[in-house]
Amino acid sequence: MYILLTGLNHRTAPVEVRERLAFAQPVPREVYESLARNEELHGMVVLSTCNRTEVYATVKDIGEGAQVLERFLAERAKMTVEELRPYLYQPNCYDAIGHLFRVAAGLDSMVIGETQILGQVKDAYVRAVEVGASDGILNTLFQKALHAGKKVRTVTGLDRHAVSVSYAAVELAKNIFGTLAGKTVLVIGAGEMSELTARYLVDNGVSTVIVSNRSYDRAVCLAEKMQGKAVHFDELPQWLALADIVISCTAANHYVIKYEAVAPVLQEKVGKKTFMIDIAVPRDIDPRVGTIEGVHLYDIDDLEKVVDANLLQRKKAAREAERVLEQELKEFNDWLDTLYVIPVIKALKERGEAIKRAEVARALNRLGKVSPRQEKVINALASSIVNQLLHFPIINLKEASLTNQGHLYAEITKKLFELELEDEGNNAHGSEGKNRD
What we know:
EC 1.2.1.70; Beta Polymerase, domain 2; Rossmann fold; six-stranded parallel sheet; three-stranded antiparallel sheet; elongated; 3 domains; NADP binding; GluRdtase_dimer_dom_sf; Glutamyl-tRNA reductase
């Protein structure tokens, strides 16, 4: 059995192609039922996020399996296979395994080390198990990948360094408050950056979202998305009194939070901290507001300095993560190669034993009546010949199983001796395949 991956991501395909292959979450049972109608596929896991769609499968024939997955994705995208193929990658088995490990670790993400992908990989695997689509090999693969992803984050701290402006804002807020649980955020402006930062804050514990925008309707729209409250723009000073965190990103060409208007309100918050993030260009918040006691004001340049410093730290952590993954991959591949070789050795021994029995029976039939001692000698001779002939092939197969060539040795042995394995569904993989990365 071989492990096969067919997919595309933010590096290989533009968003207009990726969105054609986006699956609802959790992936509908009907999707797996459609895949399962292909006898070439044995186990299946579909991983679909905003930046990637990947189908992992176990197959007996790499070529046929690859074609099935290409056709499946092309039909889903309403494209021909020829149109979709330039955007796809189908790495060989070892690279497919390594790819999943890197995905789970956050090394293949648009933002290196982002934490959300680990949960998405877990959800994809759990869903495949729920619908009965995964198999023993994919179960072990995904469990090992999830373990590796967690280990990378624990050992290297890869996800501790903010590398986006929105994420940096959240990390700074955590530094100021310790925890964001129960905090209130006031969002000024209803654009994409404001929404993204607010979402990060909510994901990290902020409980109340207040939205204000010159267009009240847009404020209402964003507030509904965040399950928050919309307020009118001219009421900003009074809502500042309730806010622990303020995000401002409007298209105004002047300060929308002026020192004279808000100083009295903020000065009354004695003993309370207010974290203000001005990510607008031109700036929304009068810099003098940052001089008020208890106010921590950061503008876009401040946040970008944090991002630049953290990006260097995260790249260093990513190099350490690759070393961690190298060991985890070796352990999994050792298991996989051994899993593949054992049935081949068993089949080889059975073939040798079958030949020995047949030839001994033929010899005894030709010799006619022989004594028990003579029959014993003939059997021993035949066993010795078979054992000596198979000794080195078996030794070499066992040794090869501890390298990344074990599957090749096993496959060649199968072809040379025309072996048929009793249950290939429990076996492993090969290295054939196309790699369009």
